[in-house]
Structures are given as structure tokens and as C-alpha cells.
């Protein structure tokens, strides 16, 4: 069984301006994603929307052994991560297919493999 994190980036300001019917369309797409995950035998561990990025608190090393704490996200960009799904699956290819169909309905998806217990991932070391 492998675990995958589906990050949902979106332009927060643009989303806030969309009419109610677009929000409804988005909710129906998420409901379809839930059905597709279940039908494919994928286990949804958890999912949630996130509060706006303006409410984030960012923490980074200050280079002197301390921490620099700032309000807001790490980077200013058009798109922010607005939600996520954490999914366990035996069939990564099918999960990618389902996410591709979800994206085709209008959602952005960043598909990330979670490093398994005992597996070493050196890409993030030192950061």
C-alpha cells in the first residue's frame, strides 16, 4: 500500500469572486472524486480545505540559530494550496487516472508520493 498527498492549489482571490453556481460545480466535482476513489478501492485517509493563505504563519531558520516567524505564506503567488487529500492505494496508476479526470473537470492537482516508513528521501535534507 502506498500513500499519496493530493495538494489542491487554486487562485484564492479568483475563487472568492466566482458565482455560487461555480462553487456548486466545484463541490459536485469533489463529490465525484470521492465516489471515484471508493470505486477504485482507494482509501481516503483524510481531506480538508485550508484557511486562506493570508492566515498562514511561516517559520524559517534565521541563519543565526533562531527562527524568523512571519505572517502569510512562504511565497507570494497567484495560486495557493487551498486543500488536500491523503490517499492510501494499491494502484498508483489508477489513482493518477482518477486525479487526471478530477483535474479535467476544472481543479488543479499536485500529486505527491509520501515517503514510506523506513524509506529514505534525501531530497529535503538540510532545508
Automatic annotation (TrEMBL):
Top-level taxonomic group: Bacteria
Residue numbers spanned by region Disordered: 51-72
Residues annotated as domain YCII-related: 18-99
Gene3D superfamilies cross-referenced by the UniProt entry: Dimeric alpha+beta barrel (3.30.70.1060)
Xref: InterPro entries: Dimeric_a/b-barrel (IPR011008), YCII (IPR005545)
Membership in a protein family: Belongs to the YciI family.
The protein's name: YCII-related domain-containing protein
Organism encoding this protein: Phycicoccus duodecadis
Amino acid at each position: 500500500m502506498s500513500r499519496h498527498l493530493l495538494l489542491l492549489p487554486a487562485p484564492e482571490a479568483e475563487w472568492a469572486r466566482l458565482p455560487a453556481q461555480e462553487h456548486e460545480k466545484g463541490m459536485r466535482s469533489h463529490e465525484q472524486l470521492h465516489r471515484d476513489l471508493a470505486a477504485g478501492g482507494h482509501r481516503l485517509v483524510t481531506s480538508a480545505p485550508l484557511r486562506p493563505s493570508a492566515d498562514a504563519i511561516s517559520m524559517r531558520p534565521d541563519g543565526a540559530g533562531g527562527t524568523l516567524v512571519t505572517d502569510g505564506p512562504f511565497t507570494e503567488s497567484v495560486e495557493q494550496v487551498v486543500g488536500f487529500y491523503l490517499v492510501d492505494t494499491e494502484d498508483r496508476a489508477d489513482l493518477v487516472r482518477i486525479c487526471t479526470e478530477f483535474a479535467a473537470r476544472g481543479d488543479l492537482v499536485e500529486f505527491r508520493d509520501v515517503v514510506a516508513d523506513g524509506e529514505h528521501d534525501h531530497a529535503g535534507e538540510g532545508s
